[in-house]
Amino acid sequence: MKKLIAGIALFGTFALASAQTITFDKTTFDYGTIKPNSDGTRFFTVTNTGDKPLVLSNVKASCGCTTPEFKTDPIMPGKSAQIKVGYNTAINGGFNKMIEVFSNDPANSRSVIYIKGNVDANAPEPKPLTPEELKVKAKEEKAAAKAAAKAAKKAAKTAAK
Fold first, then answer.
1. Where do the H-state alpha helices sit in the chain?
2. For residues 159 and 78, what is the distance between their CA atoms, to the nearest angstrom?
3. CA 51, CA 46: separation in Å to the nearest integer?
């Protein structure tokens, strides 16, 4: 009887240890100071660092000036998806908005991400990137995506042990 109870307890512990886990590339996106009516779209990358499919069930903004978009397709272990967040940049002044992300992660079923910035008519014009700067930016983004995938794979292996 003791062995049976110990076996059930061990199995239960393992079952709880293996689950879907939500991880974000960043939890705050700072727009900086931008001009009115400029592009207010930004992306957060969500990675499943667990070993079971992660499902985003809802993404809610704290007000109507912020519009999140997401897919409900399962995010497989080690894979990523994006949450698109739009802010209405016609509204002048500073902003700090909260976006709630609901998922089937048992430890973090409700996560919070933020956007912040300042819409100011006197903001400097965004400087167009040179071809060399565009190459560097693309290289940095590719390296960051590769590092995130590597970290997710390592976390999935660790969770499987």
1. 2-17, 131-160
2. 11
3. 15
Question: Could you say which DSSP state residue 55 is in?
Answer: -
How many residues in total does the chain contain? 161
**pLDDT for the residue numbered 150:** 73
pLDDT band per the 50, 70, 90 thresholds, residue 28: very high
DSSP notation for 23-38: EES-SEEEEEEE-TTS
Record the tokens describing residue 100, joined without a space.
Answer: 């709630």
Distance in angstroms (rounded) separating the CA atoms of residues 134 and 67: 28
107-134 pLDDT per residue, tens: 999 999 999 999 999 888 776 767 887 7
Closest alpha carbon to 101 in 83, 87, 115, 76: 83
Higher pLDDT, 35 or 123: 35
Torsions phi, psi for 51 (to 5 deg): -120, 15
* Cα Rg, the chain, nearest whole Å: 20
Task: Please tell me the number of Cα atoms within 13 Å of 132 on its side-chain side.
Answer: 0
- The 10 Å Cβ neighbour count of residue 135 is 11
Handedness of CA 113, 21, 52, 3 (dihedral sign): negative
